[in-house]
Amino acid sequence: MPDSPTITVSIDVAKLPEVQAYIDGRVGVVERRALDAEASLKAANDQLAAIAAADAARNAMKIKSVSLHTAAGVKPLTGPVVFDPVTGPFSLSVATEGNVASVTFDVNGKRHRTENSAPWTMFSDEGTVEKSILGTLPVGDYTIIIIPWAAKDAGGAAGTPATIYLRVAEPKPAPQAETPKPIIVKAILEAVGSGSVEYVDKDGKSIDAYLKITQA
C-alpha cells in the first residue's frame, strides 16, 4: 500500500471563517475558525453608534418657524396652509434649529433657491430678515418644501422639512372713488331769471352750485 501523500498548505487565513484544502478534486481538510467575537461586536456597535449620531443630528436640524413677507409687513405662519391668496410680491423666511449649513426652497417639486447663509429667505435679502427681497410667482397653487441641510449647497444629511401651501392670485383692482350723489335740500328760485340751490353729499357736506333757469 503506497504511503499517504503529505500536503502542506500555507496561506494567511486570519480573517477567513473557513479554510478548505482539496486533494484530487475532493475536500481533504476543512478547518473552521471562530472570528474574534469581541472585535466584531465592537465594530457593529461603532457602526450603530455612528448611524444613531447621524440620525440625531438630522433630527436636530429642523425648520422652527416660517414667516410670510408682503408689502403690508411680516406675518408669522401658524400652519402649513396660507388661507388668504397672495396677490402681490411676497417672500418666505424661516428660522432653523440645529447645525444648519444651507436651506433649500423647492417649489412644486423643482429647486427654486439654495441659501448658504442666514437669514434663510426665498427670494434673497439685504442681510436681515426684515429686509427680505420680495419676488413673484405666476398665478396658481403652490407647494413649497423648505429643507435644512448639514452642509453647504444642500450637502450632507437633510433635516426635517417644512411644507407650505399657498395660492397666488391676480392683484385686486384699486377701488374706484365713489362719485357723490348730491341731494337737493333747499332751493330758492326767482320767478324768472336765476336762483341759487344748496346741495349736500351723503356725508352732509355742503356743495355750492349755481342753477340758471330760463323762461320757456
Description of the structure:
There is one protein chain. The protein is built from 1 helix and 14 strands, in the order ββαββββββββββββ. It has one helix at 37-60, and strands spanning 18-23, 26-32, 62-70, 73-76, 90-97, 102-107, 110-115, 120-121, 140-151, 155-158, 162-168, 183-189, 194-200, 206-212. Strands 6, 7, 9, 10 and 11 form a 5-stranded antiparallel beta sheet that branches. Strands 4-3-5-8 form a 4-stranded antiparallel beta sheet. The chain is elongated.
> Oligomeric form of this entry?
single chain
Structural class: mainly beta
What fraction strand?
Answer: 35-45%
The CATH architecture category of the domain at 60-168 equals: Sandwich
Instruction: Give the rounded overall mean pLDDT.
Output: 76
Q: Order of SSEs, N→C?
A: EEHEEEEEEEEEEEE
Number of contiguous helices: 1
Q: How many β-strand stretches?
A: 14
The low-pLDDT segments are 182-193, 210-216
CATH 4th-level superfamily of the domain at 60-168: Immunoglobulins
Distance between the termini: 158 Å
Give the proportion of residues in helices. Answer: 10-25%
Q: Which CATH class of the domain at 60-168 applies here?
A: Mainly Beta
General shape: elongated
Largest sheet: 5 strands, antiparallel
Set down the secondary structure blueprint:
Elements: E1 18-23, E2 26-32, H1 37-60, E3 62-70, E4 73-76, E5 90-97, E6 102-107, E7 110-115, E8 120-121, E9 140-151, E10 155-158, E11 162-168, E12 183-189, E13 194-200, E14 206-212
Antiparallel strand pairs: 1-2, 3-4, 3-5, 5-8, 6-7, 6-9, 9-10, 9-11, 12-13, 13-14
